[in-house]
Amino acid sequence: MSYRSFVGLEIHIQLATRTKVFCGCRARFGEEPNTNICPVCAGYPGALPALNEEAMRLGYVVARALNCDLSPACEFERKNYFYPDLPKNYQISQFTRPLGTDGFIDLEFRRNKRRVKIRECHLEEDAGKMIHAGDQSLLDYNRAGTPLLEIVTDPDLEIGEEAEVLLQEFRRLVRYLGVCDGNMEEGSLRCDANVSVNLEGQGLGTKVEIKNMNSFRFVRKALNYEIDRQRDIIERGGTIVQETRLWNENRDVSESMRVKESSNDYRYFPEPDMPPFVATPEFLTSVDDLIVELPIARTARFISDYRLTDAQASFLCEERQIADYFEHAVRLGASPAAAAVWLMGDVQKLLNRSGTRLSDSPLTPDRFAQLLTLLDAGRIHGKIAKQTLEAVFDDDSDPQEIIVARSWEQITDPAAIDAIVEDVLRSNPQAVAQLRAGDARPKGFLVGRIMQATNGRAEPRLVQDILARKLDVQFVQVLSFGGAISGRRRDDGVIVAGELSQLIEQVVRDASLPADIRYEAVELGRFLSEEVTPNDWAGLIGAVDAHLSVGDAAGIVVTTGTDTLAYTAALLHWLFGGADVPIVLTASAMTGDAPESTHNFKEAVRIAMSGGAGGGAAVDSPGAVSVVFDRVAYPALNLKFERIPARAASTDAPSVVTPAAATPAAATPPAFRTWNPDAVRDAAGRSLYELQSLTVDAIAERLEAAVTKSFIAKVFPGMQASSLTALIDSGTRFFVLELYDSGTANVGETPFGLRRALEYGRRAGALFLCTSQQEGNVDFSPYITSHELWREGAVPMGPLTTESVYGLLLAVLLTSDSWDPEAVSQAMERAQ
Amino acid sequence: MKTELDITADLALLELTGDERVRLEAEVSRLLDYFATMDSIDVTGLEPTTHALREGNRLRPDKPAAELASADDAPSAESLADDILEQAPDLEDRFIAIPNVL
Amino acid sequence: MSTTSIRSWRAVLSDPDRYGAALADRNRALNAFLEIDAKRRPAASPAGAGEAAGAGEAAGPGEAAGPGEAAVPIAVKDNIAVRGYQLTCASRMLENFVCPYDATIVSRLIAAGYQPVGKTNLDEFGMGSSTDNSAGGPTSNPWDTDRVAGGSSGGSAAAVAAGMVPVALGTDTGGSVRQPAAFCGVYGLKPTYGALSRYGLVAYASSLEVAGILADSVDLISDVYTAAAGIDAMDQTSTWTASPPSSETRTVAFLSGDLGLDQRTTAGYARMRDAVASRGYAHTDVELSTSDYAVPAYYTIATAEASANLARFNGVRYGERPLYAENPESLVRAARSAGFGSEVKLRILLGTYVLRSGFQEQYYQRAQKIRTAIRNEFDSLFATYDLLVLPVFPTAAFRHGADELDAFQQKVADKFTTLANLAALPALSIPTGVFDGLPVGIQVMGPPHSEARLIEFARVIATELPFERPPGYEPLSTLPPSGSEVA
Q: What is the pTM of this model?
């Protein structure tokens, strides 16, 4: 039997007014009990409510931001019920004519855009607080009369996670608007829910109200608990009782709150103490004046106007103050891309360390823009910029003053450097001649001399540029990363990893390549593809990072093995996809001396030196990283290594694999194809992650830890939950789970269902990242079992292959400070 | 079986016993019968009057009472809060206490 | 005349102890006051009187007090807040309640040179027409102590009639100022809804009630009204108009038809008609088609609002609490059951009932539509006539107890007074004289904010029908100088 759940929310926010909604008491918290009270909010005989204009205005602001129809006139009613914390024993609320109706809020849940309908927004007064202490209940009315806006959604949600996402989006919205601080723990944002479960297609079931959910997490847990509880009752043939239940956060269960049926008759009637409110044109204008650009729109604008990644834009737009700060710095001349990277990385780290908010930190937008301008103009280099940033935090002074006082400024005058280079070249004619003749080796010596002559203050990139220009050559960095392409075949036919030199020798005088290319070779290891370890990867990452930061090459070529190429390429893509230097990986099934290897290498050099990312004819790469194999160029993501008959159609799905084509493996040369090419082309083409100047050792350490905690599991018929729980027991925290074709899996309660493993993993803090075994997106929406997967915390990874997701996971774990599955999951979802 | 009077009394948080209950039940039903005479007037097309007078908006600026000028001898917000607590039948520090047998 | 009497009233407060003792003494037979204290809240010094917060010009009583002159005493119904005084509403529920704040009208009057001297008796929470329904015991009528003073502002009416104070505040929800004024033979003004702030009036029926003034002269009614009226930020239903209707009266309508009046009232009504005729006003008889529905509509709305207004009395933050309760709900039940009198419980039950889902449309909403019909009828009436004259109550003061009029009959008899409350209109009860030992008051109603017209009309009529005082109750302002005892 399949079930459907319906969840609607009733969200309450305290509006950030100075005074209470119906009296002049300060709406202020954390004070001595019963200090902000007066005859009105204490429910004294003879006192009357007087509507606070600002509360009304902020209520309309929220309703407008939620796309509601704004009531031209609205009215207050008395909602009659007895409770000791409700001073008048009726609550002034809105019933027949709330201030806003029929709105919606957009959100993105598991990469699906959702629109949740807002039924209404109405203004009311908060009650006091009642604390239970032994055989007494203690009452504090400081909170009584605080303006409260209630927002009611339609039962459009299905599971706790969705409700949590809605609440988070809603909180972001109200914080943007400045109408509420959205603190659930302190109760300025509260949420009740109604939940019903029914057989699929049968409409709403019996409604149960859930209260006392005091955090986003409790909302998620309580709703999922309630959905399970109702489903179990229906499965056992029972009936759901319409009731109100309270979430017990200590026991992780909900408990029935016994209420007499008569107390449900609230006897609403118009509040005679206040005239109806009419929204005049002036009032509506004042509401408009308070509407700001909202997070979703602002995020979209940041992506399109500043060419930021989704991840950057959502980070910056999470809080209005940060987004404002960013735009302020950009107006002052900071480059948007750099500002985003720095704010997400180094600045955030310093803020965390000092425990300050950006707006209160010594780093004013002015200083931040100054720092980035200095960096951009080359007056300081990256490492100095980081030191300068720290100095701004420590000394509370301007970057300009800091670099002058500490003599950190680089020599960036091209004319000055030009003169020094000229001088060095003149004094070393032999090295120059060697370089001009085709040997790249003397370059290091010359650079050393130039730096010596400037006390190390010459801007390194300028040095590299001027040197190359004066010599009339361009440099390519060739990194040998094992594999057959750099190996040779022993007499017994076994391939051993070899050296680069023979490969380079094959192409160095090749007339089809520009004659001014000089090859600098670095050997990172002699191993075969399948022997790659986290340490090797760390060496590769460190080397690429170093070359990029020094700027000593017009292009980088990585020769590597075939079998792990899809992983390595993805990993490099996520780390360096935004580099301004092309990085081309190439491999071959043959040894370095084979013509095929030479061809691949030549093609890789050609692309790397063609002056732009993805220069190859067949590549439509979304970033700097690309792959050349068998003379065909591919984007770095979603590579599938396989033998297919039609090589030309490498970016299309094979039509029908005939037995004839599949059998003689040797007859059909191996090739790659790109899985979901459209989606790959859409992927962001910038570096998503900053290595934060990690040393190779640190990279190796992190990678090793990440790899140890990760596991790729392919779902298969008969797979048992116990296999996964055993892995969790032994420390696995990150699973890439390859699901069936459409993103489904058995999630039943049997040993062959994954439910137990998913539940177990959720409790243990494990993360399940879902990919599909076949062509097609992991689109969960139409499948019931997929809903179960979400609910248990599985995260769909959309169109990415397992290898690309694994690369992404490593990139995230490598560059973030956190192993928290929640944070990792968010970072991964943002990346896509 | 609860009577309408019992349900109503429950909503109003009143306990009615003995003679009082009997007498009130009679009086309530006599008056409800009297109210029923309203049925004989035609009110078709009439809007209900919920407020005595309908004039424009009356709104309060969002200013704390403590910042508004008031009569010289008016008590301060603090002393008003204290006077209010003075009337509470049972206090525990500044909390108003009510019994709640566990 | 009034200037002289005001001057003499000022004099009594120059010796508040003696005055207080005289009040207590006179109160023994009448029980008009529930609390007497002529010293607790001195009026503002005359110099500060100009700072009164009224929307209109603050007017001093009678004439500005000379240097060293004391204030004018005023009695305040015990459902109106006066800081430092009790605020019992004649209910056991609030037996020991001391009020921490002032009603807006009280602070305005104190600023204008009036001084509260005590809190007057009423039917519990204003619910009644006799002041017999008081936890503080009944008030008797100074014209005949076997008879009621009327209600619910019976204490205020008796105190003015008996010469204890020249003026008193009351509240009028369905006739509670005008009916006791008529029973005791004093003037009683029920202003336009909202003209006097309700802030500090313990609410019975919020959309119907307004503070009112009872006095022994038309001038005092006018002075006190002017000093207290105006927009109040604390009461968003308060109203004021810069362009009130003309104070001039040309045409007067008399309510006619089968009014069911007793002999005295019939005579009083006729005397009013003669006075109007002799002063040369054009006058016509009119009938009101909606008037039969006023009382059921009134009680439906009033009790509905009361059921919510009185919900706050639960023994938690103030007021009576049972000695023992197991939990908050049983505390509230016990407090309310012990604290409220029978008539209050009856009205709370009725009000709760007419608001319940399933009954609300039949009762409460229908009553609100009838209210619209009544207002419409008055709108067209005052388009033609300047004033409407009609009885206040079908009878003169009745005897204590239920023998002459039982509780139900008393409610039905509100048929003339509730009209002004339902239509939010001003009405003034004018004494027409004494008939077979009892006074009869007749009321005059006008369009919204026509208080000045009503007052001018009453001044004119007063020349025909002078104010009379019950025998043996010379005003305390005329007491012999200190040393001699009051009889």
A: 0.80
